[in-house]
Amino acid sequence: MKSLKVIFVTPEGKLFDGEANYVNIPGSNGNFGVYPDHAALISTLQNGKVEIATNQEIKSYLVDSGVVEVLNNQVSILVEKIIHA
Fold first, then answer.
1. pTM score above 0.85
2. Alpha carbons 50 and 27: distance in angstroms, whole number
3. At 52, which helix (H) or strand (E)?
4. Is the pLDDT reported for residue 62 higher than 70?
5. 20 exposed, middle or buried (CB, 10 Å; 0-12, 13-18, 19+)?
6. Beta bridge partner(s), residue 8
């Protein structure tokens, strides 16, 4: 099964750096999912839950705001503040 490279960063450092099967993101215009081979995009984030699904588990993080970039099977998530991990 194909996977995505996910890098999730806050001002305090990296929260996640690894492979995932799926990422759910709270975009400014609504939640959206990212699977392998997703189209390239850049979006701002709204208050909500980022979910990163790996082969072993689903990691959930409540975020305040930020930005996400999806490009070539890599998801880069930059957030200003984590509300709860």
1. yes
2. 10
3. strand 48-53
4. yes
5. buried
6. 16, 77
